[in-house]
Amino acid sequence: MSQLSQLSQVLIDEISERRPSVDELRSRTRRRNVRRRSFGAGSLALAIGVAIVVASVGTTSIAPTSPNRAHLASYFQAAVNVSNSTLETVGLPTSVAVPTRVTPTLSTAGTNGVVSYVGAEYCPYCALQRWGLLVALSKFGTFTHLNREIFSSSSDAYPRLASWSFVGAKYTSKYFRFEPVELTSDKPISGGGYAPLEKMTDPQRIAYDKFNPQGELPFVDFGNHFVALGASSSPSVLEGLSPSAIGQQLNDPKSAVALEVDGSANYFIASLCPMAQTDAPAICSSRLTLQAMKDLRRGEGSPQTMSDATTAPVEPPTNAPLSVWRKWSAEEHKFLLAAAANYRYPNSTCTILKISVTPNQSHKTVLGVPAGITRWGISIEGKCLPGQN
Amino acid sequence: MNIVSGTLVGVVQKGDLVFVESFEAWYDREHDRMVATLLLTTGSPDLAAESVDEACSRALERWSRVVSMESPTGWVYRVALNHARRIARRKTMEERLTRKLVPGPDLPASASEIWELVRGLSARQRQVIMLRHVADLPEAEIAGILGISRGTVSSTLHDAHQRLGRLLGDETEF
Predict the structure, then answer these.
(1) Residue A386 scores a pLDDT above 80
(2) Structural domain of residue B119, as residue ranges?
(3) What's the rounded Cα separation, in Å, for the pair B111 and B114?
(4) Is A57 on the interface with B (CB under 8 A)?
(5) Among A22-31, A140-149, B8-17, the least confident range
(6) What is the domain-level CATH number for residue B115?
(7) How many domains does chain B have?
(8) Which residues of B touch A48 (CB under 8 A)?
(9) Distance from the CA of A32 to the CA of which of A47, A52, A108, A346 falls in 20 to 30 A?
(10) Rounded to the nearest 5 degrees, what angle is found at the Cα of A57, between the Cα atoms of A56 and A60?
């Protein structure tokens, strides 16, 4: 840095104390425009705007920890290594529930690009679902710290099913984030129920309430496009089996475990493939996955359907009739609603806190848009890990 | 459609929704340096603040277009310098008509030292020096802002460096 640059840095630091806010700049713009109008000056271009506030939030609680390089237990290895040919052989059994198609909305945008699992350690249905998730998620990323072995409750239906907890588990994928939550442990507490363990994040809670109004466990949300409510097949298939035996059967396409667990995993894989925006794994283009995707698309949509407009409407010429402009405005609104509801922050370390589509109307022609025609903007508020925005 | 605060803005460009730097993020990063540059160019804190605020408010007004320019900061500097020139011209005219005495620059202490150093430079040399060393802009961008060739920027910088070196009586690096 030159001597002049060094000297000026002190001055720059002093100036920051007197910096006008953006609102003050807007007021200044308004005053200028009023002045211009009073002098009958030519047209002015009033930008129409709304806000994205992506605040870098310095927090240590979400800083990544160093990965556990320890080998996974042999039965986990067996699950993560279920071959594509085994999955092909198992196919799409009719006994397996197909995840439900849902439509993302502005309120659920916080979990776009996130795979959420909400379960509990005591829950036998969760015990089954974890195995299928492990098989499917392993096709898109890597698990570590997967070492908390558990059994489902001995006093519930399907007692003492062998499984493990997602507590402490780490998963890395270049396609999406996996956010598992185990709400309670498998330890009963006096007065009934089980000891609380983890809590959903706010965005997870919003998606959970919206897509799972009955509060079923487990709840798996594949980026707000598909959800699996409850177990995808009967947990009875795990009864009496040790973790090793389950791991072994997962690789035997003729076994009952493979039929139910690998069969569920095939639908999970098809639900995950749309989240792999680029460079999707080869399994996403397999005949089986394409067939599973067809089944998924036939699933029920959310009753509160939104536009699936994917192309922004082309602006008409300024002198087009107002009816044409009104139609354009309605189409732009639809497009931005769909864009905002599906928007996924490109950086997976960032999370959307709030997203909305906001109207803006001017009483005069602005940037070629006639007076009285509503233009729309998107406002996004989010947070990123420090230095990641 | 444009979006005017925060780190990223969504704009529809040729039918696609793309995300670019927001006005707020840019403003937060560039404002103070721009005021310092203008202050040391004009010698007037009020004129510098007024010019930068005016230029920034104009940028805010049309941010979707400004942000897609090759150098949004360069555009704002150009608007600010033009605005400062207009005000200074009007002020000079008023002073002539009313025969007012021209007050000396009322600079903050941190600027006085630099101002004493550069006040002897020509207005053009001051502009180039400040845009290069305070605004930290490359020569090509300075040429665009001032509407002169890059060669002229280089030679003006060279002359200014030599003059400043002579004033200090050494080979100080600027």
Answers:
(1) no
(2) 21-168
(3) 5
(4) no
(5) B8-17
(6) 1.20.140.160
(7) 1
(8) 1-2
(9) A52
(10) 135
